[in-house]
Amino acid sequence: KINLPHTDFKIGIVTALWNSEVTGVLKAGAFNTLIDAGIKQDNIAEWDVPGSYELIYGANKLATEGFDAVICLGVVIQGETRHFDFICDAVANGISNVTIKHNIPVAFGLLTTDTQEQAIERSGGKHGHKGEEAAWTVLKLLERG
Ligand code: DLZ
Fold first, then answer.
1. pTM for this one?
2. DSSP code string of 117-143
3. Which residues are within 8 A (CB) of 33 and not within 5 positions of it... i.e. 6 or more apart?
């Protein structure tokens, strides 16, 4: 249960367009979780960026603009090359830099899976809904005001 000190928080949802059939579901779950917690629709910015690597720029930009928290959502699926590792490492490091630099909650809603099936299982399937969980994470941190 979330107990926010007020519901005027401005929250950004940055979503990667790669694997958008899954990231779209993550985004919807995150959005609905914010609305259910009383966050005003006008205070939620949805921004679709090309790929997960661009989540770093998106989060940093919204943090610079004064958003109180940012939810980053993406799906990186292991391919035949090492691209997967580079993207996952960069996003993990980049997002943690944003949260430290701007001192705001930034959720790491990045699915890193071997298959699309595993990603689907984590976006409302048998392994939960990582979009909802990412939104819950920032709300939990915003409880402190
Ligand atoms: C290039 C790339 C690859 C191979 N795979 C994914 C992926 O599985 N998920 C994802 O979100 N993005 C992927 N990208 C795109 C990169 O994140 C980035 O958009 C490009 O490298 C351009 O900077």
1. 0.98
2. HHHHHTEEETTEEHHHHHHHHHHHHHT
3. 131, 132, 135, 136, 139
- Enumerate the active-site residues: 83
Query: Confidence class of residue 47 from pLDDT cuts 50, 70 and 90?
Result: very high
Q: Give residues (CB < 6 A) around ligand 1.
A: 16, 18-19, 50-54, 74-77, 79, 83, 87
CA of 89 to the centre of ligand 1 (A): 12
Which backbone phi and psi does 2 adopt, to 5 degrees?
Answer: -100, 135
Helix segments in 10-145, DSSP class H: 20-36, 55-64, 83-102, 116-121, 130-142
In ligand 1, the atom with minimum distance to the C-alpha of 52 is 11
pLDDT over 90 (residue 145) = no
- Please say whether the beta carbons of 109 and 131 come within 8 A: yes
CA proximity to 52, closest of 10, 97, 94, 105: 94
Percent of the chain with pLDDT over 90: 97
pLDDT, averaged across the chain: 97
Question: Distance from the CA of 47 to the center of ligand 1, in angstroms?
Answer: 16
